[in-house]
């Protein structure tokens, strides 16, 4: 038996989604959004010089086929990318009616989302009166703050000080099907925030809101900072997915990062959390220690949360170059017969208008099973391929490309 490492680089899209015109940022369609291409172009033209310099340099990812995957997805070449691939490479297209993290991960795990998520309107208050009343009751406050669409860091700038004064939790949403609650870890209390999110989640899941997200923060006015104690309370997948298939076959499933949250812990034996640098340390250790037959399923969220949503091109480029360097030392740790599949769950083009995800195709880069194109595949084919590698039975629409 062999092991599989499935690593989702959150939001590292490569353009070309055929249905991008049906997805929006600030009421403008995502047509033409291309996270990786636009970062590479900004770097090549000297517009991403903060904390780094020059063309985007991703030798390890490109050697696996990143540039080739980008050309496959969108028909465009990116400056600095396009070396002859040594891995298996292709581009995956999503069919779920959402460009959010659970939609992307569920479909990568073999289950296209079988329903329409509930999205909150742009008007204020964006939430129904009964939701606001129940949140206030659970929080023990005389109301909530926000109740609008917003970017998390901007919400703290706008409402953080008032939250410290009134204790009211800051509630907001985005183009995703989410209900986010920000509260100060010390003055409101982390445990109180987590209990509030857990308490309100069933009501929102009933409405087909995909996730309630706890957004704890620390610091004082003008210097608020979100912490790594974020926690997602997601609807459980309505059908068995990759993690269930592997667990039911008696093989270990280890979630790294927010995988446990995204799948509501379904099919997951063990979770390892932390900032992305810590998660890469965990992956290094798991390459040395994960048992035969194991599925290691990881999500690296900071491309998305620290740089994509913040529309910070240089920061995103730095994160990609950092990951590429870590990949260079991770790859030699793999054993003969191991499979590494790198992919993404949606785009988040930092050059795009708005602050939300962008509908894009994603790369599929596979090390450990030869060289050559897999071409255009479906998100669900990733699950079928990983299952085939691990020798477990897959259900659902995916077909293995291995
Ligand atoms: O702006 P922040 O709080 O990072 O929120 C972002 O994170 C949410 C979940 O990933 C997305 O729906 C987006 O709104
Ligand atoms: Mn995501
Ligand atoms: Mn996001």
Kindly report the spatial arrangement of strands forming the biggest sheet. Answer: 12-11-13-1-14-15-4-16
**What is the rounded distance between the termini?**
16 Å
How would a crystallographer describe the biggest sheet? 8 strands, mixed
CATH architecture of the largest domain: 3-Layer(aba) Sandwich
User: Which oligomeric form is depicted?
Assistant: single chain
Query: What overall geometry do the principal axes of the alpha carbons give?
Result: globular
Integer average pLDDT: 97
Instruction: Tell me the Rg in angstroms.
Output: 20 Å
- Strand segment tally: 16
How large is the share of residues in beta strands? 15-25%
What structural category arises from helix and sheet content? Answer: alpha/beta
CATH class of the largest domain: Alpha Beta
Key traits:
binds manganese (II) ion, 402 residues, binds 1-O-phosphono-alpha-D-ribofuranose, 36% helix, Alpha-Beta Plaits, single chain, eight-stranded mixed sheet, Alkaline Phosphatase, subunit A, 2 domains, six-stranded mixed sheet, 13 helices
Overview of the structural elements:
- Mn(2+) 1 binds at residues 10, 345-346.
- Isomerase that catalyzes the conversion of deoxy-ribose 1-phosphate (dRib-1-P) and ribose 1-phosphate (Rib-1-P) to deoxy-ribose 5-phosphate (dRib-5-P) and ribose 5-phosphate (Rib-5-P), respectively.
- One of its GO terms (molecular function) is manganese ion binding.
- By secondary structure, this protein is of the alpha/beta class.
- The protein has 2 domains: 4-114 and 238-390, Alkaline Phosphatase, subunit A (3-Layer(aba) Sandwich), CATH 3.40.720; 129-234, Alpha-Beta Plaits, CATH 3.30.70.
- It contains 13 helices and 16 strands.
- Strands 12-11-13-1-14-15-4-16 form an 8-stranded mixed β-sheet, sandwiched between helices.
- Helix 7 links the parallel strand 7 and strand 8.
- The longest helix is centred in the middle third of the chain and has 22 residues, at 185-206.
- The radius of gyration is 20 Å and the shape is globular.
- The chain starts with a strand and ends in a 12-residue tail after the last helix.
- The mean pLDDT is 97.
- Residues 304, 309, 357 line the site of one manganese (II) ion (MN).
- The site of 1-O-phosphono-alpha-D-ribofuranose has 11 residues, from strand 7 and strand 8.
